[in-house]
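Box 3.1 A note on notation
Throughout this textbook, protein chains are presented in two layers. The first layer is the amino acid sequence; the second is a C-alpha cell string describing backbone geometry. Keep the layers aligned when reading.
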Amino acid sequence: MSQAPTLEGEFDYIVVGAGTAGCVLANRLTEDPDVSVLLLEAGGKDDYHWIHIPVGYLYCIGNPRTDWLYKTQAEAGLNGRALAYPRGRVLGGSSSINGMIYMRGQREDYDEWARITGDSSWSWDAVLPVFKRSEDHHGGANQWHGAGGPWRVEKQRLRWQILESFAEAAQQTGIPVTDDFNRGDNAGVGYFDVNQRRGIRWNASKAFLRPALQRGNLTIITGATTQRLVFEGKRCVGVEYRGGVAGDIDFVAKARCEVLLSAGAVNSPQLLELSGVGNGERLQKLGVGVVQDLRGVGENLQDHLQLRAAFQVNGVRTLNTMAAHWWGKLMIGVQYALTQSGPMSMSPSQLGAFAKSDPDDPSITRADIEYHVQPLSLDRFGEPLHRFNAFTASACNLRPTSRGTIHIDSPDPRKPPLIAPNYLSTDRDRHVAANALRLTRRIVGSPALARYAPKEILPGLQFQTEEELVKAAGEVGTTIFHPVGTCRMGAVDDPAAVVDSRLRVIGLEGLRVVDASVMPVITSGNTNSPTLMIAERASAMIREDRNARVSGTQVQTPSTRGTSVSVA
C-alpha cells in the first residue's frame, strides 16, 4: 500500500471516499493483484483514540477532526430548528463515529428494492448470503449469520437494571422479547448487537482497509478533497481533487475502468452536481455545464427522525449520577482500562425495541417504530447529563413518507450543500410521531417501571392532543444519523432514478455510485451494515463486469433483461 500525500496518475479504479462502502471496495477490488485502486479520503487517518473507545463518539461528533460538521436548513416540521448533521470525515467514515449497532432491516425492505429496480438480486433472500459473507458473528455460523468474515458482531459488555425494567415493561405492552434483530423480522425488545471487538469499536477501516494495506495495488491518499469528476463526453475518466501539504493544490487522477463514488448520501449528490450531473435547469442557473440531465440527483432524501422522551426515576442508578462526580468518572475509567467493559464500552444506545406505532391499525403490517433506549438523559446532544437519575427512550419512524433534498447552491466545491430533510412534512409522518409518543407513555406506564415512579421531563405531559404531540415531536425530534436515498437506484426508464440496479449512473459510462445514497427506500433500522452489504454487492458486480470485458464474454444486465449484451 502506498500512502502518498498527493498523486497524479492512472489507476484501474478510483474510489472517492474511504467510509464504510469505500473501505469495502478498496479491499475487495485489490484482492485481484492485476487491479490497481486509488482510494481518496478528505479526512485523516483513524488514529484518534476517541474513535476506538465506544463512548468516544461524544468527542468525534462535532469535532472537525472526524466530522464534516454539516447543518440542515431550518426545518418547518421541527418548529424552525436547524440540526447538526454529523457525517464521518476520517478513514472508516461514519463507521468511525456512529453508534456501532449491527442492524440489517426487514425482509420487506429489500423485497421492495427488488420491486422498484425490477432486479430480484436485491431481494432479502438474495442479499442475506451477502450479509453473512461479511459477518463474524459472536454466535457462529448458522441459518442467519456468518462467521470468519471481517465485520465483527458482538454482544454488549454491560447491563443496566433500568434497561432490564424497560424491556419488561415493553413486554407488558405486547412487544415480545427477542435475542436477534437480524432475521428479517426485527419485531421485539432486546439488547442491540454491536460492531465491536472485545469492547473496542470495530470500524470499516479496521475490518476492510487494514487487511489490504500491504497490497502493492492499493494507494490511499488522505487529506484529499475531491472537487469534481472529470468527463470526456459521456464517460467519466477521472477525478480532480485538492491536496498537498497545505491542502491547496489541485491534482487530477485518471481511471482506466471506472470511478466509484462512495462519498455518502450528502457528498455523492454534491459531487455529481458540481460535475454537471443532475437537474440540468438547476445546474445551468448556477453556471455549471451539464454533462447529464438526471433530475433525481439530490432528491429522495430520507432519514430517521428520533423523538427523545426522557424520564426521571427514583430507586435505580443510571449513568447520570454514576458520572456526576470525579470519583465516579475515575471508577468508570478504571473499569474500562482493566476489562474493556462498563459505561465506556457503551454504544450510544444499548436496548432496542421494534413495534407497531398503532397495533389497531390494519394498514401497519410490521414494526414501524424503533426504540433506542439509554440509561441517561440530557437536554440535547452535546450538553451535560442531568444531575438526577433518568433514562431516555427515543422512538423513530422506520419508514417515513417525508422526502427531503440535498443540492448545491454554488459551483464552489468548498461550500457545503443545502441539506433539507423536510421532516414531518406529511400527515402520515405527523400521525406516526404522535402515536410513537403515546406508545412510549404506555410502555413507561407499565407495572415493570412503576416501582421507579417515572416522571416525564421531555417532552412533558403538557402535550396531550394530536396537535400538541406533533408540536412536541418538532421540539424534541432530531436526526439519528441515517440519511439515504439521494442517488437512488431504479429501472433505467425511471425518471427519478440516478443509478441502475448495478449502481451505474444512468446515461454515463465509467461511473458508479456505491453508498447509502443509492437506497430507493430507507431500511427499517440502522443503515451502516446495509451500506456495507451494498458495497459487497457492488464489488462483486464490478469484478464480474471487468472479467467479462477481459474475456470478451457477454453479460446480462437489468436494463436489457432477456437479451445478451456484449461488453467486450
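Residues 1-5, 559-568 have pLDDT under 50 and may be disordered. The first strand starts at residue 10 and ends at 16.
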